């Protein structure tokens, strides 16, 4: 790791100020990707501004079916939240299967979605839940937020402070873990609203990162059952092929996981 | 057995320090004035070095010096060698290319060391290493061993045309061909044994200390065999003569073979310590471990197994290409030859066997022994083939094996080995009973109702351990003898120190070796200290690998104990005015048999050192040494049965049951043996399901250079193992020990792949059996 300056911000305002003063600063919100990258000398920020200890960015608030999760909330806190489990247990389940206990106690939801790793779990949930990403400057719909591999709509210096969503009637997440990293080789989040609207988001499999699958959404909107998935074609041409799995295999996984997610929802 | 003697499941003495963080590993060593090294490594898999410019790096903060291969060459440091000569079938010696500890003209794999930077801190050394400007001219690359042999491929060493190191054979080719021509049935398979990274928990590390006052070197290193390291660095690398070189291998956190070899870093740090005048420490990071630790396996083979009309195997024909990587590591040549082809008879009475083995240079990390070393490759090939043959012949896998089992001993195979003892039927029956083989159909039907494909598979392995009779291995090309030495020192108060040339890096010698002494002398194990891993404390040794410490190392201890006991009895007889032949040792005392007369062990020890009243002419003291050279290999064997469930929708395999019934000969500590089996099974299951080293074929870059991409088995990948033993004592050594360290990794991969191929009904499957491969094979099979 190259030398860097560590700052612990106690407010969003202070974090923005610290970042403004840094030559080439990076926000740190768990650092489960950033720190290993720095250790390998593949990233060299002059300054790290730690967001994990900003009180206004922490915690889970549930009001009826409205959920607000502070960006600095750890995966473990999301996994263990009784209030969240009462309205959206799928998200608790997703968080409980991220990484390992060490990662879950350090990593945060804001850090995960701002990093937008194409195999991360949270982006699929945000997209399927039609969440709103709240920053220190604005609110961005999840559909506009995730723009590509490790790319988001976030601008320089902008901080994700929270995510908001209305809990759906039913939801579930199914993940097929990469045997080495345990990231998603494919992960499918399905959500169904009271009005019958369905969103299906896929992570781990897309060549361009997380995406919604219109074919699965239409089939499940017409018939919310595992069987409805059977006749949907998953186009492998837009999927990722790498050392661990071909696009064709990932296409198969997407279909299987979608079916299982509907069964579990 | 006593509560602490042979056969007792004594808790490990060394675990107190390991579990409380008090272990002392090489990286924990600190000496005054110590500085830190980082190696500049090649980012290219194959390139010519045009120039190295270290001027900027030398000017950086904290940098003491930057040294390169030209300086190493000028100082007369020798080439790294392979210590086992193999001759091709045309009689020509193996074609060993030059391996410089720091490459001076050509780099041949990604990670090849080019220069060493010594600085006040690791961070400063790393910064400076990035500032060393190496001008490379990239050359074409070949990583695939089969392709490397083809015409027109990149030439890696001028000494080895077409990248072939040797073309070796064992057995009677004509007899095999005749048997195949006359066979009632021939089973043919292509077998790939996947390349593995050793992944010891402790990365390699070394601390080189040159003392200018005494012109003496001390090398702390992560070694399985510090004496071999000293011998090789003295005799071949010209670092220092043995009396001026002390090698210390303190606590070592796992080796699995990868810490047998002498790597560039040990001798370069010693040399750099002399050049810079400061002690130099280097510890590999995990990326360096993936890049530069010697890898294992990497065979591509074809096999033909011939049967007569009564389903007896009449011949086995094997053709293997083995990838040895960019350089020949210390024992790389014997692994795919004498540790491999000699085991191709397995547990079966096969009249004719022929193996042809070609070894190949590629632009990849060196390949050498990894847990099992040759024997897993032989077992995987043989056990996949016989299971396949059983399916083709319409016999149960147990029945075909039973028809062909060797049942009388000693048994001479057609591939050198002479099996001394065994009972293969016993382990097969024990494993099948423990696995409830007969109930499988019911479990399979139940799984099918859940949409799962359940399969069962077995493997009956044999291995040759207790390496090895020195004259025998010498006649086969080994550059060293494979005996072991020990010294038993009884202190004046009766406590005991055992100096052993074996080295413990997880095996629990401090406990098992003490148990043997406790058993013999009737003293508590707490009064016995096992000393190992330091060439200044232990005179000589050949180290620990090939499951040899129990069978060879402990045999040397027993020989020394025999001498100690004989002298102690003489002293006791003298003290009690009894006949020496009437003295027995029991419960910490020397007794006159059949009487109530006795003297405590401690009094005999004290008498030996006060020397006030010794038998006439006897030397004072109670200390004896011994060398033990085995008369034969030992032959652990056993049967593994694996049961899996495959999810046909995803190809995900779950190992739902794993049974191992092993014959290890006599056992000193059953708990430690069980632990060894568990670890071996985890590694074998890792090879079969998860692990595989991948290089990019175009660039030679290592694609699996971290745990993000290299899949190590985790606890939740493994079932709760059912292990048991059916032991036949080894007749070849005094304790009747065969060895248990590698068996788990040898027997398990074929059992697991046989189970998966049974489940999916398709035999075309290579390791690691990833979900995608199993999914594809399951769908192709229907």
Helical content of chain B stands at: 25-40%
Q: Radius of gyration of chain A, Cα only, in angstroms?
A: 18 Å
Into how many domains do the coordinates of chain B divide? 3
Which shape of chain A, going by the Cα principal axes?
Answer: globular
Helix content of chain A: 25-40%
Tally the helices of chain A: 11
Number of strands of chain A: 14
Biggest interface between chains: A-B, 19 and 26 residues
Strand content of chain B: 15-25%
Give the amount of beta strand of chain A, in percent: 15-25%
Keywords (chain B): Molybdenum, Oxidoreductase
Protein name (chain B): Carbon monoxide dehydrogenase
Pfam families (chain B): Ald_Xan_dh_C (PF01315), MoCoBD_1 (PF02738), MoCoBD_2 (PF20256)
GO molecular function (chain B): iron ion binding; oxidoreductase activity
Explain what you see:
The complex is a heterodimer of chains A (265) and B (782). The model of chain A has no long low-confidence stretch (mean pLDDT 97). Chain A is 32% helix and 25% strand. Chain A has 265 residues and is an alpha+beta fold. In chain A, the strands form four sheets. Chain A has a five-stranded antiparallel beta sheet with strand order 4-5-10-6-7. Chain A has a four-stranded antiparallel beta sheet with strand order 11-12-13-14, with helices on both faces. A three-stranded parallel beta sheet of chain A has the order 1-3-2, with helices on one face. Among the domains of chain A are: 5-50, Uridine Diphospho-n-acetylenolpyruvylglucosamine Reductase, domain 2, CATH 3.30.43.10; 170-264, Enolase-like, domain 1, CATH 3.30.390. Chain A has eleven helices and 14 strands. Chain B is of the alpha+beta class and 782 residues long. In chain B, 28% of the residues lie in helices and 23% in strands. Chain B has 20 helices and 28 strands. In chain B, the strands form seven sheets. In chain B, strands 3-5-1-12-9-10-11 form a seven-stranded mixed beta sheet. A five-stranded mixed beta sheet of chain B has the order 7-15-14-13-8, with helices on both faces. In chain B, helix 15 (509-521) runs parallel beside helix 16, helix 16 packs across helix 17 (601-610) and helix 18 (670-689) packs across helix 19. Chain B is globular and about 85 Å long. The model of chain B has no long low-confidence stretch (mean pLDDT 97). Chain A binds chain B through residues 1-3, 40-41, 176, 178-181, 183, 243-246, 249, 252-253, 256, and chain B through 123, 126-127, 130, 287, 649-652, 689-690, 694, 703-704, 707-712, 717, 770-772, 775-776.
